Amino acid sequence: xxxxxxxxxxxxxxxxxxxxxxxxxxxxxxxxxxxxxxxxxxxxxxxxxxxxxxxxxxxxxxxxxxxxxxxxxxxxxxxxxxxxxxxxxxxxxxxxxxxxxxxxxxxxxxxxxxxxxxxxxxxxxxxxxxxxxxxxxxxxxxxxxxxxxxxxxxxxxxxxxxxxxxxxxxxxxxxxxxxxxxxxxxxxxxxxxxxxxxxxxxxxxxxxxxxxxxxxxxxxxxxxxxxxxxxxxxxxxxxxxxxxxxxxxxxxxxxxxxxxxxxxxxxxxxxxxxxxxxxxxxxxxxxxxxxxxxxxxxxxxxxxxxxxxxxxxxxxxxxxxxxxxxx
Amino acid sequence: xxxxxxxxxxxxxxxxxxxxxxxxxxxxxxxxxxxxxxxxxxxxxxxxxxxxxxxxxxxxxxxxxxxxxxxxx
Lengths: 327, 73
Description:
The complex is a heterodimer.
Chain A: E1 12-14, E2 19-21, H1 23-40, E3 49-54, H2 58-69, E4 73-80, H3 84-101, E5 105-109, H4 110-114, H5 118-125, H6 129-147, E6 152-154, H7 159-171, H8 175-180, E7 184-185, E8 193-195, H9 203-213, H10 229-243, H11 247-258, H12 260-270, E9 275-276, E10 283-284, H13 290-297, E11 311-312
Parallel strand pairs in A: 3-4, 3-6, 4-5, 6-8
Antiparallel strand pairs in A: 1-2, 5-11, 7-8, 9-10
Helix pairs in contact in A: 1-9, 2-9, 5-6, 5-13, 7-10, 7-11
Chain B: E1 4-8, E2 13-17, E3 21-22, H1 23-29, E4 37-41, E5 44-45, E6 51-52, E7 57-62
Parallel strand pairs in B: 1-7
Antiparallel strand pairs in B: 1-2, 3-6, 4-5, 4-7
């Protein structure tokens, strides 16, 4: 196979584009796709301070790499979820990535700073593990971004993630969720601006970006996510994609262009009546926010000062964990 | 005579196939969807028409990941 651009040897075929690319032109394609998403949806204003939510996986590390490549000012935030060896390893991948490149990585650790972990939180709150995890991540990424003065939180949700979420929301006609499934959520009191710059790139492309850029990401799947319904949706969509390349892109981007606005009023109505949580001050429609309830049910504790404790990560060399005091 | 060595993960295991064979034929043998994997040889990727020779080693890496996908509020 030959590269569509230079006719040199190709390293990847992307059936959605009906084209093959060499390393150089594939990487250029990825940068261009991210740049186009940012421009089309006015995601990041020039001069903004960006905080990337980092998991140690291909999407978040790849996103951080691409945004820096495009000239943005970006720091990372890693949240330790307390999922045994998986969390230890994923944290090391994030620390190694940041350390090797001299990037600033902040860390928050659920067991250390809030006295619970995702498995315990999931059991205590009778939520699915991915639900307890997602709730914790959203709350803490929002709070840290605001407390540290970041203008934008960028997450590594890619085209496959968004198509799978859309598929699930349509299957159950969750119209309030459909109204909120946007690539940009503007800043509001208590919420930072949130953007998803990878919505034009699939996860195969993100994994390829990392391999070709020499980014050592955590390949193992989160043990808590195995068998969850979104993985099933992704597999189903990939079966369709194999028969009809471009289906995932058309499904999601067609929704954004032609259907999303129809569901907006219901989602906006859901956001009315927000008030500060009596425990942590985050916006909520109840007296106490869902995160504080989760911490309480899991037997954890909110930090005394009311501010999320963060530390700057200590770089590690993968496979050789270093020790040292954090600041 | 050598074989094509194929590394798979989750769980980690190594399989051997008689070469030469094309990457797409390997993926068919493994019953894997091309949309869901990358095939890595050394520090680069190979396309589906690449011929894998005896004594080649490749990794077939799944790219699907799942997790906290609730819509942000």
